[in-house]
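User: I'll paste a sequence; please echo it back and then give the predicted structure.

Assistant: Echoing your sequence first, then the prediction.
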Amino acid sequence: MMELTKSLKCCGKLHFSELFPSKWSGFIFVAYMTLFVNQGLLVTASQDSNNGYLYNTIEAVLATEVVKLIVSIMLYTKDHSILSLVADARMHSKVMYHYFVPAFLYCLYNNLAFVNLSVYDPPSYYLLLQLRVVITGILFQILFKKHLSGRQWVSLVLLTAGCMIKQLPLSDNTPQPLSQLTTDNADVVIKAVDKGTAPLLSFHMLLIIVQVVCSCLAGVYNELLLKSSDGEACNIYIQNIFMYVDSIVCNVVLLAWQGQLPVLWDSEAFFSLFQAKVFLVILNNAAIGIVTSFFLRSLNSILKTFASALELVFTAILTRILFGIPIYLNTVFAIMIVSLAVIMYSQNPVSNLRPKDKSKEICPV
């Protein structure tokens, strides 16, 4: 309580220079958050009337990794030759093997996103993903040997509580929306609400937990690689190329494991990826992968969790506009608590860079 009171008194003292250490950090933060909000909306929009998909989702993830690989090669060769690319890849080949760990975890995460978004509406989906907040804090302490302060832990707990309040009714009755529904979008709302009410203890909740653990481990491990001595000596585009090659291998193995490998040379399945909505899903997801690598190098996994929490706010607003899902009073309370948690954290953020790295800046993609 003392931490909370102290935070409220000092709410004007925001250390933005520590939150965003370079001139591009703020841009990267906003781009990362925007792309993730878009992804939930686009995946939902690409579903059929039964919340299924008329395209192979694993192949869509695989196509995303191919796009990211091509973009990374193009960005590298903009300032370097192909021979230099081959030479750098050989020189840092050990880093490529390390990237199989986050590549495998991101492979599971990206494929589970399609599965879970077929069960939960976007606001509920992003809400449940906030379970990674405290897990990420613990992993950050273990891997980077940096102890979070009492205020940082209070802000993380507040953030988690605010996200959980979003799905709780304020009384025994169904919470009342802040705006009334029209008959035109009532059927859409009922369908969306039904999607978001899966039992707390269920197989789908287990898949959410698996996705959360994959996200936490992959994010922090990837940051550890980017900021390690081997990672810092390796060009960021080379690291991205390693990640995406490993991810392609992981997704091909997943297709083979599910007996769907023939889909790779099925022309009908291939052209289904070029439907407008599916193509946007692939492009947006590819942009997420590129921006995330810059995010983790210039910022950190803790700030990444706050970006994810803010996604919940914008997703609730946009799904209200696009899909007619109402905004309930408990959503407003959740937004207020999340905002307070962000203010508390910004007053005492985790140090993003070591002293010798303060002169480094990373250009945006």
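The CA atoms of residues 120 and 196 lie 4 Å apart. Confidence is low (pLDDT under 50) at residues 7-12, 171-194, 352-365.
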